[in-house]
Structure of Flavin reductase (DIM6/NTAB) family NADH-FMN oxidoreductase RutF:
Amino acid sequence: MDDRQFRNAMGKFATGVNVIATEVNGEVHGMTANAFMSVSLDPKLIVISLKEDAKMLNKIKESNRFSVNILSSEQQEQSMIFAGQKKVEEKFEFDYLEGVPVVRDSLAQLSCEVYNEHVEGDHTLFIGKVTSLELQDGEPLIFNCGKYRGLKEMEKAII
């Protein structure tokens, strides 16, 4: 199998959309990601996966803290900004949760400390210990087959 075929197969798995954020020397850095999952309740651990050449990788190693922001169906623009798909004139304004930058109005904001890290293939898996979280009601932003989708759109596809 070639790389494109593998990517297409992985794209069949519908995922939520997250923005990962951290702060180094007073400068906030963010990136869109969908490689995220919960790992443990005790202790409360999550995992994110970053490609070895991602700029965010060294930023998280340096800060040892990051946030995971689970985006709502109304935050496609924010996802596109942090995926480098959309340019903005103004500087993006972050809120803070326990001193870690978070994306305002996300369905969930998780403040994390790096608990462990593992290099696997061409990615580093960061295990994050969740130190605080904030929740809001709403519908999640979903990514499937290379497109943004909402739950209602996914429900119609199933029926």
